Amino acid sequence: MPSDISSLMSFLNSPSSVDTQPIYVVTSILMSLTLSLSLAYVYDKTHAGATYSRSFVQTIILGSLVSTIMIFAIGNNVARGLGILGALTIIRFRTPIRDPRDMIFIFAALAIGVSCGSRLYGLGALGTLAFCITTMVLDSSPYSSRKRFDGLLRLMTKSDEGLKEKVLGIVKSNTKTFDVVAVREVGSGDVLEYAIEVHLLRSNLYDEIINDLRALEGVTEVNLVMQRDVVEL
């Protein structure tokens, strides 16, 4: 039994890129899956943009697994490495990554896969932990905007200070937070056009806020464009 424990500890701490025994392959894949799932969870919780993509989150997990398998397949064989590199040059990646932060998450997933495929589990685990903690700290720091909005409310009102207060009062009573992003004069200045980002108290308040605003005399063209939770680009 002690020798078995010693062998297991040696396996966990001594990387080998050529040993492809089933236990090593399974352990590396499970470790890669666990770490990449953690990475995807942190990405999901800290994502604040309007271009959330379900397929991108899945790519983080699958990319880590693929890189783990590739490291096992290559091993110490230079010819295999060159062959896989040649095969990758045939593939033309045309999916645009608009947010540099998303690109960093892709690199992090690949780094997890390489670490697990090389059986550097400690490095992979500690690196993933450091990356996730740093991401969450930055998400709650002054470097990150904490405002997340459900949609964009557009409306036109008469240029009247009292009417403006009524409009903002209705918006405030139906939202957790809101931000007036634009106010534009229309025509000779008697009419104002508002663009307001809103985070509703509840999703079913969509009709209520629109009806309350339309009921105000002097308010016209009320529209609320909701942001979809999943946007496939």
Structure description:
The protein is an alpha+beta fold and 233 residues long. The protein folds into two domains: 2-139, no CATH class; 151-226, Alpha-Beta Plaits (2-Layer Sandwich), CATH 3.30.70.260. Helices cover 56% and strands 16% of the residues. The protein contains eight helices and four strands, in the order ααααααβαββαβ. A four-stranded antiparallel sheet has the order 2-3-1-4, with helices on one face. A hairpin with a 4-residue loop joins strand 2 (175-186) and strand 3. Helix 2 runs antiparallel to helix 5 (100-117), helix 2 packs parallel to helix 6 (121-139) and helix 7 runs antiparallel to helix 8. The protein starts with a helix and ends in a 7-residue tail after the last strand. Mean pLDDT is 78; it is low at 11-18 and 229-233.
Record the SSE blueprint:
Layout: H1 2-13, H2 22-46, H3 54-74, H4 78-90, H5 100-117, H6 121-139, E1 151-158, H7 161-174, E2 175-186, E3 191-200, H8 206-214, E4 219-226
Antiparallel strand pairs: 1-3, 1-4, 2-3
Which segments are poorly predicted (pLDDT under 50) over 5 or more consecutive residues? 11-18, 229-233
Distance between the termini: 54 Å
Strands side by side in the biggest sheet: 2-3-1-4
- Biggest sheet overview: 4 strands, antiparallel
When the domains are counted, the total is 2
Global shape: elongated
- Helical fraction equals 55-70%
Quick synopsis:
This protein has 233 residues and is an alpha+beta fold. The protein has helices spanning 2-13, 22-46, 54-74, 78-90, 100-117, 121-139, 161-174, 206-214; strands at residues 151-158, 175-186, 191-200, 219-226. The protein folds into two domains: 2-139, no CATH class; 151-226, Alpha-Beta Plaits (2-Layer Sandwich).
